[in-house]
Amino acid sequence: MTNYLWIIGALALISPAGARAPRAPRGEIVLPMDAPVIAVEMAGVPLRLRVGLEAKDVVEINADVIARLPLRFEDGFDAEVGRETIKGVTAIGELRIGKTKRMVQLSSHGRSCCDGVDGEIGIGLLPYATVRFLRDDVVGSPTERSLPVRSTIERGLEAVPADSTVAIQFAPTRDRSVATAAAGAILARRLGGAPEGESFEIPAAFGVTRPARRVRFGRPADIAGFSFAEIPVRMTDFGGRETFVDHDSDPGDIVVQRRIKRQEAWPVVMLARDRLNRCAEIQVDVPAQRMTLRCAFD
After folding, report:
1. Can you give the residue range of the structural domain that contains 247?
2. Which domain of life is it from (predicted)?
3. Total number of domains constituting the chain
4. Pairing relation of β-strands 89-97 and 100-108?
């Protein structure tokens, strides 16, 4: 939390008295879902940034971009990738998109975040009221579903269904949907089910992989209209006090568990290309805080 407070204070210090706040978003931008890339200027330097549906309201840049920018970076804004902490550096700079300028936070974590571009930007930093991600090659007949969304600097954009404590993030450039430990445990308790099989590694962020197990449900889980009979769960990440009953162990077994420091619970399912390739459109109405999906749902 210290990093977030630091950056808020820094933004206040560099804003002269009477400076205008960023104007209210207006208009729309349409992006291809598989390659949602925009051209911007950061501190006067042209960059190509991927627009991340799940990204925080921060400009995350690849490590090799830092030397191109006339900005002073300081240590801070470390990233938690499951149980691994990736040290970061951060700066404040002027972002220009078209004719719109605003001061934003940049961060970088010593490695590449995004192949083929200079970095990634969250929807909350765009000057548009509506952001539309489109796909042309959808098989089936799309129908429409709308969800409320929220965005925070800590977690990025999430859908928050009214009837669930499990949030949903959308990552159409990732390959495989995955749940945090808290989300998997809540869904297994609600629907029946438990972890099955051996642990395996699943990509997380910044080239880091995290251990996961398959959780099979007694009844299929409905996540934003998509059916999951099972889902990979990052078993040691963001579980809080949520736990599973592991039916792979016998009642008489003595189970020795390594004591691991408890993290804050973050119950979220990240939907990836394995489901979102059925979506013709994902539209975010920023002022209304609504997301509309047009997908060939289950």
Report:
1. 143-295
2. Bacteria
3. 2
4. antiparallel
